[in-house]
Fold these 2 entries.
Entry 1:
Amino acid sequence: MRPVLILLLGLFAWWPTFALAEGAGGGYRGIGSMYYTLIWVVLSYGLYDTFGKTALYVGAPILAVIAYFLLPPA
């Protein structure tokens, strides 16, 4: 229980830093990276579920590169 409490206290202490990381007038790259990471995870799982482990090993890096280039500019 103590490690969980320490983790929660650490997250609450750093939360304002995460919120103001880009400063006022920041871009959409942060939320875009979270969005495309979620899409990448779902598509990678679909590759694994449909075609197996080999397709995952080949397709997941390709999907990651495509998702990176789709991110909005900083």
Entry 2:
Amino acid sequence: MTAKKPPSLKALEKACTSINFQTSDQNILVTSPYPEAAIASTIISQAISSLKSLFHISFQQPVVTIDTINTLREKYSSSAIIIVGIDILGKKKIKKGKGYPLIIGGTSESEQVNSFTLGTDSTVAAAGYVFAKSLKDTIDYNLQLAAAGSLLHNGMNESKRGANKDIIELAKNNGLIEERKGFKIFGVTMLPLDEALLYSTHPYLTTISGNQKVCDAILNEAEIPIQKLRTPLSNLNSSEAQRLTSVLITRLDPSTIPQLLGIDYILTQERDISPIRFVSGIETIGATAWTRNELGALVSVLLGDRGRSLRTLIDSHMNHHKDVISTIHHLESHLQGNSTTTTTTVKLTGSKTEILPDVGRIALESGIIDSVRPVALDNDEVYTIVWPSSELNTKMVLQEFLSIDTKIIATSRKSITIIGNDEEKDIALQKIVQLNIGAGKK
């Protein structure tokens, strides 16, 4: 399962013509929780819907065995199956049934699986777009989404190659996305100034997030006009934005600044007040939906629901980050943890399970705990492990646990949640410690 050079957009289009796969009256999309996979599934679903066929999106762990695929094949024997952004381990044969599934992105150990795979693990959104276009000419909205998904792979700050670069350039040339520099926090187009700062967790602004008094002082020092205090950050003119930036820079750790300020991309077909008008907004709301297991609501919004689903997702998002910030403040003043030379374990009795991945991430990033060792958060119900190495991702971790009976759930790009006994939790933690050390040496 070695990394391959990402294919170009033309190479994906050529490969798509040789794949023998037909959609059905009923289609099941089995999707990884990664935001770029959810985007690819959205694009494909819209194409299927335009053909007057039915689709159902089901979310699965990012790494599965061929046995899992065969079980799905039997369960949905009358449906066409499309698997999006999932790594498939094992060298057994996938059962044909009425037809083989189509694999969009992901990696595999099996030559058989590779024969009906379109794209690679790094080109999931682009491959989804190419397949959707082969079914029916896609609309500009889908190209815009595909560009967003391509930008999200490995983060916007990483250079793009192959089909990802091609898709982004195509969307730019069609006026569907525009590069901009500025604030990248959630709510830049919709939340009042102070709330965008107050509830920021991507990134967490140490001494600012959750502190209304400090937020007010920052806006006052930046001389933001009173009439703009309850308007979004995007409403500031260039001089106001510059003053606010200058004040924030003096109060933040230098490592936080590139997360707060920098290059972002506008989706030009989104309304000015939409929380997903910027790719950074999709990134944040997608990560929260994954952590909270609300990916269905995310896909509903991506499919076009800007009413109830969007409102539900925003409310859930805001409540989530209020809970995260409250817990971080508690940790800063009442940290109860045990440290070894390799790990940190923090007891958070009674905390909500769904906030633990973000709490662990922020605790590592802000230096509340040692920033080079994995942290295990225990709320007496589950054990969530978050690791610091950017070279270690969830798929790499899950591959190591497939042969173990312990129930492991991917809860973000850099965390897993374990449901098991103390011995299973300890074994899992030690395994992640070794993976984190190994990833750091690459």
